[in-house]
From TrEMBL:
Coiled coil: none
Keyword Heme: no
Organism lineage: Bacteria, Candidatus Coatesiibacteriota
First and last residue of the signal peptide: none
Any single GO CC term annotated in Swiss-Prot or TrEMBL for this entry: outer membrane-bounded periplasmic space
InterPro entries, A to Z: Curli_assmbl/transp-comp_CsgG (IPR005534), FlgT_C_sf (IPR038165)
Gene3D superfamilies: ABC-type transport auxiliary lipoprotein component, FlgT, C-terminal domain
Name of the molecule in the record: Flagellar assembly protein T C-terminal domain-containing protein
Keyword tags: Cell membrane, Lipoprotein, Membrane, Palmitate, Signal
Superkingdom of the organism of origin: Bacteria
UniProt-listed Pfam families: CsgG
PANTHER family assigned to the protein according to its UniProt record, in alphabetical order: CURLI PRODUCTION ASSEMBLY/TRANSPORT COMPONENT CSGG (PTHR41164), CURLI PRODUCTION ASSEMBLY_TRANSPORT COMPONENT CSGG (PTHR41164:SF1)
Length: 295
């Protein structure tokens, strides 16, 4: 009986390790956040960088930095404000090669000082209690379909007696000085909640990539070891139809997709993989690549 139980436990462990090893990292980018808090600090840029670092450190995603996204937007003149919109996200995703873009706003970045007295029996002694609040409203847009697939609000609050506050010249997200401020601690609470929510939501979103180029023998896709691709994996390939644009809002409503075949990974490089066709054909650049649910 013990041998059967032990064998079962070993099998479960092997399957768990295998599943973990084959988990593919989805490619996402973080946009500069809009400052709706009216802060005197550069909170939109600073907190976007903190969020980018937190997403990278969780190990679940291949994260593109805000500067990479900004460079693409500037080069292609995709927005004068530097902020991602549902209208510009699909084109940015195609140019940058990301599956989803995180964008949104800093809704609160405030501090409040309360004077607290201990009464006359203590000689009228008083002290100051300082509270910092940081609020974020984050959305994720699918760059393939143009749909907003996730929205989450989070607020962090940190309160201390004689707590350390930000001072002019301090850069958000840089160094232990920032980490030790009340604003830094409150921001970390909000961002940790956002990251956990993104991890949970993105588990339900199938991994998506694209064909870079194809010939009669090989199909190159835009993901490699850095995305968790392994030899032997199979992917379905879809041909994307014309984008359907809402004439009122200008937002993409998605596009029809046609399954044209299946490919199997033969060789994996750092940033791309080489596949062979095992079903169908007629593959070309920008075709959509998705996980094969039956493999």
């Amino acid at each position: 009986m013990r041998k059967i139980v032990l064998a079962t436990l070993v099998l479960v462990l092997v399957l768990a390790l295998s599943s973990s090893a084959m988990e593919m990292r989805k490619r996402i980018a973080v946009s500069e956040l809009e400052d709706k808090a009216g802060s005197s600090y550069n909170v939109g840029t600073g907190l976007a960088d903190v969020l980018t670092t937190a997403l990278f450190n969780c190990g679940k995603f291949q994260v593109f930095e805000r500067e990479q996204l900004a460079a693409v937007m500037e080069e292609q003149a995709l927005g004068t404000t530097g902020l991602v919109t549902p209208q510009t996200a699909p084109e940015i995703g195609k140019l940058l090669g990301v599956q989803a873009i995180v964008y949104g706003a800093v809704t609160e970045f405030s501090t409040q000082k309360d004077e607290v007295g201990l009464g006359t029996f203590m000689g009228g002694i008083g002290f100051s209690r300082v509270t910092a609040r940081v609020g974020l409203n984050i959305r994720i847009i699918d760059t393939v379909t143009g749909e907003i697939i996730f929205s989450h609000e989070a607020t962090g609050e940190e309160s201390e007696t004689g707590g350390i506050l930000m001072v002019p010249g301090m850069v958000i997200g840089k160094g232990s000085e920032w980490d030790n401020t009340l604003e830094g601690k409150a921001a970390r609470q909000a961002i940790d909640e956002i990251v956990n929510a993104i991890i949970i939501k993105m588990k339900d979103v199938p991994w998506t990539g694209a064909v870079v180029k194809a010939d009669e023998e090989k199909v190159y896709i835009n993901a490699g070891m850095d995305s968790g691709i392994e030899t032997g994996m199979e992917f379905r390939v879809y041909q994307k139809g014309e984008d359907l644009i809402d004439p009122v809002t200008g937002i993409s409503l998605g596009a029809e997709e046609t399954l044209i075949g299946t490919v199997q990974v033969m060789e994996v490089k750092e940033k791309y993989a080489i596949c062979r066709a095992i079903a169908g054909g007629g593959f070309s650049a920008e075709d959509i690549v998705r996980e094969n649910p039956f493999h």
